[in-house]
Amino acid sequence: MPLFTLVVEQYVQWRFGFLATLGLALLTIGVKAENATCAGIGGLLLVAPAVTAGS
Questions:
Q1: Side-chain half-sphere of 31: how many Cα atoms within 13 Å?
Q2: Is 46 exposed, middle or buried (0-12, 13-18, 19+ CB in 10 A)?
Q3: Using one digit for the tens of pLDDT, what is the confidence trace for 1-52?
Q4: How confident is the model at residue 53 (pLDDT cuts 50, 70, 90)?
Q5: What is the DSSP letter of 34?
Q6: By CB neighbour count within 10 A (0-12 exposed, 13-18 middle, 19+ buried), where does 26 fall?
Q7: C-alpha distance from residue 49 to each of 1, 35, 42, 43, 54 (Å)
Q8: What is the dihedral sign for C-alpha 36, 39, 45, 48?
Q9: Is the pTM of this model over 0.85?
Q10: Contact yes or no for 26/33 (Cβ under 8 A)
Q11: C-alpha closest to that of 20 among 54, 53, 50, 55
Q12: What pLDDT sits at residue 30?
């Protein structure tokens, strides 16, 4: 599982940059810690670069 996580994080950073990687990390930490605020901020940071890259 750690190898899969590393591959996903590297792909996200390559495709969408540092903010998306930070968002993915915050989302993962928020879900594991059951912290909705952390997961929500991570989700927003993960989605924001994807939305701006498409336009």
A1: 7
A2: buried
A3: 788 888 888 887 888 788 888 988 899 999 999 999 999 999 998 888 778 7
A4: low
A5: T
A6: buried
A7: 25, 23, 12, 11, 9
A8: negative
A9: no
A10: no
A11: 50
A12: 94
